[in-house]
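hey can u check if this looks right to u? its 360 residues, i copy pasted from the old doc so theres a chance i mangled smth
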Amino acid sequence: MKIQKKELLDILSKCMPGVETGKNSIEGANTFIFTKGNVFTFNDSISVTVPLKLSGLMDELEGAVSANEFYKIIQKMPKDEIEIESSEKSWHLKSGRSKIEVNLIDCDYSKLEKNLDRSGKWQNVAEDFLSALKICSINSNKTKYSGIVVKGNCAYSTDGVQMNKATMKSEMPSFWISDSTVKELLKLNKLDKVQQTGNWLHFKTGNIYFSVKVLDISQYPVDAVEKVLDGSEEKAGKTEFQFPKKIKEVIDRASSFAGKEQEYDVVKINVTEEKIFISSQCFAGKFKESVKWDSDIKGIEPFMIYVDSTMILEMLSRTSKFKLVEGPVKDGKKTNRLLFVSENSVNLMVTISGSDDDEE
């Protein structure tokens, strides 16, 4: 049989999340499994199933091959057309003068298929689900509560320095997924249907299935996160301020000399009624710059906060409006938290520990 290289690569590329994520220690991991007119990949956290649309391959091609090696050799085939013949223990590929024998892997992939039971009821994915994941996504979250929880029509995340909540237009099943899963889902443009069976969450777009392993949501303090966010909105009241437009580019410059605090790239924001002072310091040097408010600011008490540069820039990309929330007293000093509220999101940011040796 003859197949088109580009068409096959397109199918294999869609399956790669089931190869590149998770652990390869389980049987069937790191393989492309061709069966029943589909190609699917599987590991301990993600599985992808894509139908074969290639003429002549729908029913004839059956077996499991080593994923990375198979993908690489298909990429490097010299011609656009590939001839393939199957035997009991191997496939024989030919493209131009290149001849390849691909060994079939002996694994009982029927068991893997049974684990991916999709016999439940499908429901529509909230149209803004992927947007909610992006709002709640946290880079380098190393806490035990990393990942994102979805409950009803809300998504939540926290790493102890920030808490995020995104409200969607419709409800979803309740689940907790890892950051690595979130990263893969955010690569997708659209998800149509969803269902949950056991500890797997299945998404469907057309006739492509994207299945992800869920974590134990009973261990996530979602009610506590909701309570803190609700309480912060109450404490903040109605007084709202707006950061000047130029603050993003200043913080971006400061990030070049951001100090390291665990996994965070720390910059210092010192707010007064007249100006906002942005500074940072690391082994390479120091940065300091001030920016004026775009309009007169009245009633804001001077405050200082240490923030992760990536985190604050992501917040400011959605809204420049913020409220101040009084935090706990530390070392005899009052602390403040920043609360960003938009139409469909609430984001709370607390200060990262830092030094006051560069006080303006």
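Residues 355-360 have pLDDT under 50 and may be disordered.
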